[in-house]
Every structure is written in C-alpha cells, then in structure tokens.
C-alpha cells in the first residue's frame, strides 16, 4: 500500500474510533441517568451531567476530525488540521463547565436536604460504566498517540476523566452505604469535580499552546540533532530554524548556507537530502521548506555568525 493509501486508512481508523466513542458515550449517559433516577444521588447526577457534556464535546470532536482531514485548498493553503487545537480547547472548556455545575448542584442539594435510595443498584450500574470507560478511554489515548491525533487523545483523556468521576462516585456511595452518613455523597461529588477541573484546564492550556505556536523543546532537540549531523557531513551551515505544530504534523523551515562555488544542482541535492532526513525524524509527518544562501554574501549582508558550520 502506498503512502496515500496508508494515510487514508489511518484517517478511516480515527473516524471509526470517534464514532464508537460517541455511541458508547450515549449508552453510558442513559445508564448513568437511570442510576440517578432510581437513587436521587447528587454524585451520580454529577457523573451523568459530566457524561452529557462529554457527548456534546465528542460530537464537536467528530466534526473537527473530519474537517482536519480535508486537504489544503485555496482558502486554507496549510490545510485544516489546526481545528484539532480548537477541539481540544472546546472539550477542555466543556469539562470545566461540567465541574462547576457539579459543585453547584452538590452544594445546592446538600443545603436543601439529602434523600437517597436504591444505592446498591445505582452503584452496580456506575461500576459497569467505570469498566467500559477505562477500556474505551485507554484505547483512544493509545490510538491518538500512535496516530498523532490530538483530537482522539483529548477525547480519550476526557473519557478516562469520566471514569475517575465514576470511581469517586462509587467511593462516596460505598461510604454512604457503610456509614449511613448521607453527606458523603455531595462531598465526593465536589472532590471529583475538582479533579476534572484540573484535566479541563490542562486541555485548554494545550489548545492555546498549539494555536499560539508555543515552542516545543523536544521537537527542537530532534531537529537540531538531525541538522547538526547532516550539515556537518555535507559541509553546509544552517540558521533561522523554525517549526510549528500543525495538529497532524509539523511545518519546518530553515536557511541552508553553502560555499560560493557550490552549483545550484549540488545545493538542491544536499537540501533535498536534509529535508528527507527531517521528514523521517518527525512523526507522523513533516513539511520542510529550505532557503538556500551563499555563506559569503550572507555574512556580508546580514553581518552575524552562522550556526551549524
């Protein structure tokens, strides 16, 4: 299978994973809402509310994934993959809103007076949701990292957060059943909300970093290692190295410096070799643009030292 075929296969795999996530999310929301309906538990209600917002976020993520896979066009010459950062930010924002709503609801019910019933059945339904969410979330995070899909990875982390929410709910329900002290229920709902607040802000921070092209030290180190090795071998200098995360790959541009007697043909061949080495080093893909300059004129015109020589 050629490179285009492999890429299309990966895209289909990612879309299928997101569709499964959406379908499972809908089923689990119904299960959790049923558990809340028969128990009256504010903690279970919080869990169900978080799942409801998760479904909205996944719906946006499905749209974002499809848009990110559209090829570049005249209006978007660099492609559409940056939408993945919007998706992660939107999902993070939804998580934060869910956490704030959970805290408000738990405190309101605590003040109004607590009434719980059928906690055993509710705990069993919540436990089933935990197992399913852990399996699905771990798979999506693994797949997202393997295929370098921020959308899929963010969705998987949200699902794992949902699982932690449910685990906290189970602990609260267990303590309530054992001790008979009803406030355990809203207390654990609040603790769970604080935990998911942390996750939500993490996704927002990652989203802002991608949209603002925040430098990635690991990528910088990988690029410098490749360039130092290749330019030393070819007797070439380089500077003005820049790179940005596109959402599904990296864009790299730099200047290459050649001796004045180097022919265009030879300079182009060396530049192509360096570009290919960078593409091999950065996964899942990299677009590399090089600007060829003569060393002598460069030093005379720009008047500063050359790196990588």
Give a written overview of the molecule.
With 309 residues, this protein is mostly helical. It folds into two domains: 3-211, Alpha-lytic protease prodomain-like (Up-down Bundle); 217-302, 2-Layer Sandwich (Alpha-Beta Plaits), CATH 3.30.70.1350. It contains nine helices and three strands, in the order H-H-H-H-H-H-H-E-E-H-E-H. It has helices at residues 3-39, 42-68, 83-112, 119-146, 150-179, 184-211, 217-234, 264-281, 295-302; strands spanning 237-245, 250-258, 286-294. A three-stranded mixed beta sheet has the order 1-2-3. Helix 2 runs antiparallel to helix 3. It is elongated. The two termini are 40 Å apart. The model is unreliable at 1-6 and 305-309 (pLDDT under 50).
**β content, as a range?**
5-15%
Number of strands: 3
The helix/strand order is: HHHHHHHEEHEH
Q: Tell me the CATH architecture of the largest domain.
A: Up-down Bundle
Oligomer: single chain
Overall 3D shape: elongated
Topology summary:
Blueprint: H1 3-39, H2 42-68, H3 83-112, H4 119-146, H5 150-179, H6 184-211, H7 217-234, E1 237-245, E2 250-258, H8 264-281, E3 286-294, H9 295-302
Parallel strand pairs: 2-3
Antiparallel strand pairs: 1-2
Helix pairs in contact: 1-2, 1-4, 2-3, 2-5, 2-6, 3-5, 3-6, 4-5, 5-6, 7-8
Descriptive keywords:
309 residues, mainly alpha, Alpha-Beta Plaits, 9 helices, disordered N terminus, disordered C terminus
């Amino acid at each position: 299978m050629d490179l285009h075929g492999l890429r299309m296969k990966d895209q289909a795999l990612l879309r299928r994973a997101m569709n499964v996530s959406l379908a499972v999310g809908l089923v689990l929301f119904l299960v959790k809402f049923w558990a809340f309906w028969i128990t009256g538990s504010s903690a279970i209600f919080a869990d169900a509310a978080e799942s409801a917002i998760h479904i909205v976020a996944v719906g946006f993520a499905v749209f974002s994934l499809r848009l990110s896979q559209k090829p570049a066009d005249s209006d978007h010459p660099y492609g559409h993959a940056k939408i993945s950062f919007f998706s992660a930010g939107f999902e993070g924002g939804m998580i934060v809103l869910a956490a704030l709503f959970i805290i408000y609801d738990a405190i309101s019910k605590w003040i109004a007076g607590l009434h719980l019933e059928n906690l055993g059945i509710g705990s069993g339904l919540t436990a089933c949701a935990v197992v399913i969410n852990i399996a699905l979330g771990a798979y999506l995070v693994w797949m997202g990292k393997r295929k370098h899909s921020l959308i899929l990875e963010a969705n998987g982390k949200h699902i794992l957060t949902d699982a932690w929410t449910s685990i906290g709910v189970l602990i609260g329900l267990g303590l309530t059943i054992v001790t008979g002290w009803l406030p355990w229920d809203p207390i654990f709902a609040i603790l769970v909300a604080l935990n998911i607040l942390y996750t939500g802000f993490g996704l927002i921070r990652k989203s802002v970093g991608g949209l603002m092209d925040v430098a990635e030290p690991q990528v910088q180190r990988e690029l410098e290692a490749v360039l130092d090795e290749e330019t030393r071998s070819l007797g070439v200098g380089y500077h003005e190295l820049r790179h940005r995360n596109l959402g599904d790959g990296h864009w790299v541009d730099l200047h290459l410096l050649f001796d004045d007697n180097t022919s265009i043909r030879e300079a182009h061949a060396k530049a192509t070799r360096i570009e290919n080495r960078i593409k091999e080093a950065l996964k899942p893909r990299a677009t590399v643009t090089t600007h060829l300059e003569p060393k002598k004129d460069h030093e005379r015109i720009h008047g500063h030292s050359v790196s990588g020589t």
